[in-house]
Structure formats: structure tokens, C-alpha cells
Records
---
Amino acid sequence: MTAEDGAKSEAAATPPLVELDAVSKYYGHIKALTDVSLQVHPGEITCVLGDNGAGKSTLIKIVSGLHRHDAGGFRVQGEETSLSSPREALDRGIATVYQDLAVVSLMPVWRNFFLGSELTTGRGPLRRLDVPRMRATTHSELLRMGIDLRDVDQPIGTLSGGERQSVAIARAIHFGAKVLVLDEPTAALGVKQSGVVLKYVAAARDAGLGVVLITHNPHHAYLVGDRFVLLKRGTMAGSHHRDELELEELVRQMAGGSELEQLSHELQR
Amino acid sequence: MSGTAPPAADPAEGTQPSRPAAVPERKGLARRLLGRPELGAVVGAVAVFVFFAFFADSFLRASSLSTVLYASSTIGIMAVPVALLMIGGEFDLSTGVMVTSSALVSSMFSYQMTANAWVGVGVSLLVTLAIGLFNGVVLTRTGLPSFIITLGTFMMLTGLNLGLTKLISGTVSTKGISDMEGFESARALFASQLSIGGVDLQITVVWWLVLVALATWVLLRTRVGNWIFAVGGGVEAARALGVPVPRVKIGLYMAVGLGAWISGQHLLFSYDVVQSGEGVGNELIYIAAAVIGGCLLTGGYGSAVGTAVGALIFGMTSKGIVYAQWNPEWFKFFLGAMLLLATLLNLWIRKRAEASR
């Protein structure tokens, strides 16, 4: 509770970028999410942890504008909101990077980078994509993130999983996202690739963005996280600030009983 | 701690040039060529051309080539929007009979209302666009596979074509409208011949080339083109990035309606009388032309130029076999083999493009 109290006094000064206050979501009779609260502040990483079916993806869908919440408060920069589409979320500065769905593999890197926000030049029927500018921007923006691609025309599917996630993150930053929502960015990746992605997550934080990191891996979360929200079967099982939490405690909270054994097995990998 | 690499400030980490970039740059051109969706079709077209130039004496005459181009254009006009739709990840099985519907509506509306032929042409455009709209809206609203929805439209249109024609004109074909006002001018637009350098060229070839150019422009140089590739190649990513997925798909189905309108008007104004049972089976030929032209059945990849080359292969094969004085039954065998080869090539290309997953 102390963390929440601390957060509240903080919130009085500047409202959090995104704040969920006892948010609930129902699918028919099924309660997918009950009374979940979290705050996202600029330059901080809020980790949402939970097992499969804990409600992580429902939470992400509400924040990214795919679903509306049914109860509770959803505030973006202090303003009560109910997002009706991903486009609206993007316009409010909330960008979501999905694990497998972040990019269109067959399309060139630069087309992916500008997808949905293409630059154009010319007027009327001659309005056309500004291809040279998009190519150059993609190259320079990726370079800034430390990704040096010789050919931005290659299909993005030819990049490694970590690089693809990183391109998606770079894209969100470039388009002025204030809040970056990352859905299991390391789930499908090996140890080294995960490290690459977490580095870009930290880079996004250092750039002043508020980051929501959804994961089921407490180790990855603890490496970069400032706040930790634990979900269990659609409800909040805990909310902590980094100062008051050890990694062991986080791992223990994430898993109980027999699940813990499994996790320690995973740990030894 | 697990063995996760800490997010250390090591800019070289994870920036290893990925596979294609690792290839020395002089291979860039070959790689670029291999990456083009048209490649397979162009190689195939050259092979077919050389083959018939060798085996069919009259194949290389200007008049023969003009006939080949005409045959190609009648397929090509529809294959272009079918290809765009396929790149956008969807099918349309109703295209073949929709062409007939377009001609029937135009002819019967003009005849029954004893109006100007142009009125029928206009009404026909509205009807084909409405059919496209119907396909697109049902698809985006229900989320059912386009195969099922357009199979339904295909059957309904087949029945409507025959049933309504019999009901209205008493036979399975329409009455001639060639004496009607506006017929000649409409014929000039949809079914005339141009003489270029002493060679007669059907105006459908012009329609075809214009459509290919337009589709190429849209695909490669407009936002909508980018969205078409995206909804076909990764609909969830496209949606998450704010691409208006339903509008793109509905628009593509309406483009198919537009193609059916042009083809149908050509049918009407070149033959005057329309047989209501025509068109069944052509939908597969359009799809085959698109696939031979390098479009992936699963969407997200392909080109209008490749599709045009695919249609050209169809035209060359169908006429070439006649000029070689072979039994025309071989035509279908040829095309079947061509389709399989093209699909295998496409599969290989996609594996390359999606490698190192």
C-alpha cells in the first residue's frame, strides 16, 4: 500500500501519462479483469506480470484502444478516456508493440516503419509516397537506436526477432509516442535477443517515455522495471515499487506452490 | 539471475547485419531481382514466347501478336483487381459471372427502358460496384472466409444471370441493342479497334495497360497501396498501427466490381448479344493469372505488372496452340503445369523472405 500512497502524492503534482483506476472488463458473463489499477509515469517502466490467462492481454487491449473498459477509471494525462480504436490510442500518444504482430514480415523495413503514418508529397491525384525521405528517415532513426541496416528495402522478416521488436520500438518513439506498451517483447526470444530488446526498452525509458512492459518473466521485468503490477486470474495480486521489492520476492509472488518448481526449473536454464 | 545479457551500452550488440545485408554488395542486383514478384512470370513468359516462336510459324506475325494481346487483355483487365485483392489477402470467386452480370444489366436495362445505351452502362457500373460492396461488407462484418462468401455470391449471380434473363427476355440471351442511341459511341470506348502502325489493336489492350499502370502506381506509390500489402501480409499489425482494414478490403472488392464492369461492357459492345450462362470458370483463370504473376495466395505479396505478364502467358498459350495447329485441349494442361511451377517458385521466394524467423 505504501507504494500506492507514494504514487498518489506524486500524482497530485503531475498526473501520470496513463492511469487505470479499478478498471474491470467483462466478456458476457466472464470477468476478464476486475479492479485493476496501474500508473505509468514518464521515464519509468511499469511491468505487468502474470501467468497465461491472468488478464494481461485484456489489459493491453484496453490501453491500446482495441477494447473499451466496462467499469473503473481510465485516465490519459489526467483526462478521463475511453478509447474507441488503436488509431485514437496512437493519436493520444499510446503506441503498442505486439509480440508477433508488430510487423508485416513480407514488407520492406521502411514500409513497416511508416505503416499507417506514411509520408506523402504532392497534391491531389499526384499525392504520392515520399519514398526517398521515408527510406532515409528509417535508416537514420534505426541508427540512432544502434541498428545499422545496410538495406532498408529488405523484407523485415529477414531480421532477427529481437531486431524486429527493436524496429517496432524505434517506430513508436519516432512517431512521438509518450507511452509505449510492449506485449511480451521477450517471450519468443532467446537470452541474447531478449537482452537486445530490453536494452531498447531502457533506451525508450531514457528518452522520457512511459513504458508498460507486459511479461511473464520476472527476471526480465526486474532488470528494467520501476513499478510492478501482478495479475492473477483477472485480479490484482500485488502492486509494488522497485524500492520495496527484491527479485526473489517478485519471483515468489509470480508463482506459488507447484508453479514455483517449474519456474525454478526455467531459472536454471 | 538467469543468463540474460544486461542492457549494457554496447551498440554493436544485436546490430549484427542480418542475413541479406551480410551478403557482399555486388550480389545486390541479383538479390534484388530475385526479390521481385514478377521474376517467375517474366521467365515463364519468355520461355512460352520462344517456344511458340519456334513451333508455330505464324506466331511472330504482327496480326498474330495483336490477337495474342487481345486474348491477354480480356483476362488481364480482370486479373489486375483480382491480384490487388489477393495481395490484400482475399479471394473473389464471383468475378467470372460478375462480368456476365455487368453485360446483362447494361443490355437489359437499356433494352427494357428503351433508353440510351449509356444509361445501361451507368446502371451496370452502379450494380457491379454494389456487388463488390456487398462482398466486402459481408466479409468485414462477419469475418467469414472470403472463399465461402464469394462462393455464395458466385452461385447467386449464376442463378440470377440465368433466371432474370429468362424472366425478362424469355430466352437465355439478351436482345440486340445495336440500333440503340449511344451504342456506337459506347462501342468506340469498350470494343473498338485502333490502328497503330498498320496493326489493329483492340481497345481492351489500352484499358488493360492503363489499369496495370494505375494499379502499380497505387500499390507502390500511395498510402492505400502500403495498406493493401499490410492487410494482406499482417492484418493484426496493420490494425494495431491504425490502418482502416475494413475500408481497404471493401475498396478492393469494389475495384473488382469496376474491373467486371469494364470487361462486361466490352463483352456487350463487341457481341451485341449476351449469353446469360457465360463466365463460369473464368474466376479461376483470373486467379491463376495473378498467381503465375507472382501474387501469393496467402496475401501480402505480388504485383500488377507480374499479373499482366501472367495474363500474357495465358494469351500466348491459348493462341499459340492454335497457331501451332495443335489440339486445343493441351491448353489447359499447359496452364495447369505453369500454375504449379509458379506456385512452387512463389513458395520458395516466400521462404527466403521469411527466413531466420
---
Amino acid sequence: MSLRDAGPPIALVVIFAVFAALSPGFRTIANVQNIFDAAAVLAVVTCGITFVLMMGSIDLSTPGIMGASAITVALLVANNRNDNDLGLVGIGIAVLLAAALGCLSGLALVVLKVPSFMTTLGVSAVGLGVATLMFGGVQPNVTDAMLESWAVDRFLGLAYLTWIAFACVLVGWLVQRYSRLGRYAYAIGGAEEVLALSGVKVKPYKVAVFTMAGAFYGLGGVMVTSQLSAGLVQAGRGYDFAAITAAVVGGTLLIGGRGGILHSAVGVLLVTVLSNGLVQVGVSPYWQGGVQGLIVVVAVAAAVIPQRRRNQVTK
Amino acid sequence: MKFTSRPAAALIGVAIAATTLSACTEEAVGSDDTAAAGGGDASTCEPADVTLVGQVRNESNPYEASWLDGGDAFAEQVGLTQERLTYDGDSTRQQEQISQLFAGDTSCLVMNILPNGDSDTPPIVEGAQDAGAYLVTQWNKPADLAVTDYDSWLSHITYNGVESGKQIGDALAEAIGGSGGIVALQGILDTGAAKDRFAGLEESLSANSDVELLDDQTANFSRAEALEVTKTLLTKHGDDIKGIWAANDDMALGALEALKQAGRTDVAVVGIDAVPDALTAIEDGEMTATVSSDGPWQGGIGLAIGYCVATGELAVEDIADEDRAWYAEQFLIEKDNVGDFVSPETDESDFACDNVFSRSQGPIS
């Protein structure tokens, strides 16, 4: 890791140290476990969005895809609405559906040449529509013992969901580091024309990145369902911008070509530590939103100082 | 009559044109089979000519779905059908849908509307006034907009959030034996509902001096956010927490999950709205109390008031000023009475024209 990438981790350590100094409740083992548990879903979602951002695209389909996957999984595992009890298969189907929705975003981008901002916004609406149809007015509550245990049972002090998040970050990192998909995602973000001129067909890789992102969001939706023991249409509400914020705070640039999974993981921790710490030190809820926004801006500004180049245009 | 703006003039123009057209050409607009009455004598409508419209944010919300079901129940009672409209919490879409309604035949149009926010109410009211439609709104209106200034806007119904916040606050105090620490989960801080409900909790706290508010945080009325915030509060205050006050049931249910994950069973939880999952939780003894505004009744009552006026059984002038903008009765639900609310049904007698204001708890102050 070069000096250029050191900003966000330093910011994380500084913010952690400040909260630890201010609040005895913050520096307990239980609270650190709590922070990791709270970061789990956001970490998985951010894994997906990071690849999209690395390509220089944007993805706003998170709320819709997570909602569709949350309702799907809630209706396929043991629940109070029907007699399904598919267990892991149900989870697999929900993630596949999410991947298909992600694939739809990618196809609309490369085939119809609609900018990713609009296609993903549209796919989000489609996902929410599918979720609302399946919801049908009655909340599906999950009774599946395995899915419920993911949020409740612990291994080495952390919920199973948190270990799933660690696994996702590892998988994401391996894909980014060792697969052609990951390296091309970087290259597309850095200089798509150069890549195309050197004979690489970029379109399939773009579709693949969106499909993989969709699968991550789908897993995120499954995890929210596990935490709430219920399938909610709004399962993914707010995760689109939370994930983009986490990725950018971690040092992934919106113009693409820079950053990566580990950067984003740091960003996720930073955002989660912030919202946890502000509650722990007792900042009034009326102030929290503003204070949180301010710290994020300062953290991003501090993090990009080493990357700043002369004559760089910021838009 | 004075036109205040070009869009208004255009809207009225279109409305008049549409009315005239529909009088000549259109046979059946809604469910009725007689020709539409036209613009002539607008004072009374044949019951069969009345068009009933219920509009809420979305049907994926059990409360709002039950509202529309209540509207259907009333419509069935008078031999009509209700047009169910939803706008996904999108103010622009709500206005578009309503403009479309006003572009059709409005002489016997009865609307029971849930405005998306306070600021969405004035254009709906102005439109109804110009179109001569019969309008009842619920929950949201700007405080300085007076229903009595209009004749098409028949009534505005809302609930006293201070009262419900206090009711569950008192129920929580009783559940923890009158003393101990509680935490509060507030709604979206800049909404009237969140402010009023929290003010109610503060009233309850001053009456129960041994109950201490350890912390108040916002979870934006969201189940997922309430889960995270409650987990953090549980690590912060630990066993000092004896009760959790939530400004709605979704947050209460999120808090219940957090308690389950933390292995805590000694904490009482209260909420507001009476969503189905909360009622189940109360039946199972996991949750202590909630407050119901009776969604099906809300869905029926707005249509009933409009229907009574449209058919001439009730005259706008005869509605007392205090019944033009009023607080409706709400019900505290605890374990002993939860059975009555699990499958709420509308009562036909509530919608009789001489009984439509029977649930009033007084005018909105």
C-alpha cells in the first residue's frame, strides 16, 4: 500500500481514537463487536458497488434489488405466508434473481447505450415493483431457523452475518486482484478507449460487473431479512447512497480507475464507526445528521490530499 | 370568480370541456350505468352517479392497504366500487393523478385523500374547489389552511400525536413497574408526527417522575435503522434499559429484533400504528402496547362524509365548524384487548350520515 492510499485508514484510526477517548462505552469489546455486526450488510453491498464505481459507472439500483431479494427469500424459506421451506436453495434463488436484475442494468447500459445512472434507477424501480407485487399487502415473516440464526448466533464473538461479510470482502478482493474481470474493471475505468483499441471486447465485462454487483446486493437483501426476521420492500432503503459514500470515503473515485475492495471496506468501517460513535458520545439526534455529513466531507478531503494533482479539474 | 393563475384557468377549462364532453358521449365512467349528470345542478347526485376515489401512498404498507380495504367496504355498503389510487410517496405523482381525476367528470366525485405532506394539501384543495368535487383529507395539512374557507373541502381528519405518545408512554411506565430507565426511538425529526409523539412522551415522563429517559435517538421510522440504533443503545446503557419507547411500530419491531439478538427478554417495548406484526407481538407478549388509528375506518369515513354530502343527505352548511377539522379517536391496544384489533373490520353504522362525526375528539387546536 502506497502513501497515496494511506489517507482513509489514518482517518479511521483517528476517528476511532477520538471516540474511544470521549466515551468509555465506545471502547468496550461489546461495542467493537457491535460495530462489526452493524457494518456487515453495508460491507457486502459496498463490495458490489465498488466494482461498478471502479469502471467509472454508477449504480443506484441497490434499493430495488435488495427489496426484491428480501421479499423473494422471505417467501421461499419457511415463513408465515406459504408452505415453502427451501432453506439454502431459497437464498440461492433470491441471489440469482438479484443477479438477473443487475444483469438487466448492464445490458441496458451496453445494448441500449443508456447511461448507468438512468438504467440503474430504472432497474431499482423494477425491483421495487416486483417486490411490491410479491408483498401483496401482508408482511412475510421468516420462521426459518437457519436464516434467523445467522443474525443471532455468534462465532468468536461476531454474528454469522459478519463472517459472511468478511467472506464477501475476501471474495471481492480475490476477484479484483486475480481475475480478468477485476483487472478489466479497473482498466475500463482508467481508459476504456485504450482497452477497446487494444482489441478487448469491454461490453461483456461491463454486463458481468453489473451482474456480480446485483448478486452482492441480493445477498445484502437476504442479510437484512435475516436481521429483521421479515421480508421488507424497503429492505434496501438508503443503502444506495450509504454504499457510494462508504466507497468514496474509502478512496474509490467516482470517475473510476482507482480504489478497490479493501479501500471500500475501510470506508464502510469509517461510516459505521461514525454513526455508532456519535450515539455513544451522546450527540443530540438533532445534530447527528449534520455532524456526520461534515465529518464525512472532512474525511474525504483529508483522504484525497495525497492524491491531489496540480491542474486537476474537480466536477 | 377570479383566476389566480394560468394553470388554474387551464385546468378549469379542461375540466369544463371534459364535463361537457362526457355529458354527450360517455355512458359509463365508473361503475354507474346512467349518463353522467353534467355541470347543471351540482347540489345533489343520484347515489349511482357518485364516483368514489381513495388515494394513499402505497399498498405495500399494511396500514395503507387496510385503509383502501375499508374504502372498498364502504363502497360495497352503498352499492358502488372504490377507485384505488397509490402514488408511491411521490408528491408529483399524487398531483398528476389528482389532475387527471379533475380532468374527468367531477360533479359527483368523492375523494378520500392522504396527502403526501403538508405542502401537498393546498393544490389538492384548490383543485377540488374549482372542480366542485367532494374532498376529505387526512393526516397532513398546513396549520394555517382553514377548511371552513372552502365548500368542496368537507373535512380534515387527523390524530392527536401528543395523546398517542403519552398513552404508550404511560403504558410503558406501568409495564416497568413505574420506575427505571427507558430509551426513546424518534421518527423523522422534522415531521409533525415525530414531534407531537415525542412531546407526548415528555408529558408522560413528567407524570411518572421515577421513569428516567436515558437517551433519545432517531431511527427515521425505519425498522432496519431501529435495529442498529437499539443495538448501539443496548451496548451503551446495558441493563439500565428497562423499556423502549418507539414513535411507530416499525421501529418497535426493529428494537424487538435487537433485543432478541442481544438475548434480552426483560425489556418492555411500545409503539404506535397497530401494524399486524406489532399486534402479533403483543399477542405473544413480546411487545407491551401500541395505538391504533383504525385504518379501515379512515378509508371508509372520508368516502362516507363525501357521499352523504354529494347525495344531499348532509349539507356542507350544516357541518359544524368543529367537525371540519378534527382529531379522531385512537385506541390503546394492550394484551387484554388485542384480540379485537387483529382482524379489524368496519362497522356499517359508523358510516351512517348522522354518525360520521361520532369519533371526534374535538377540533384541531
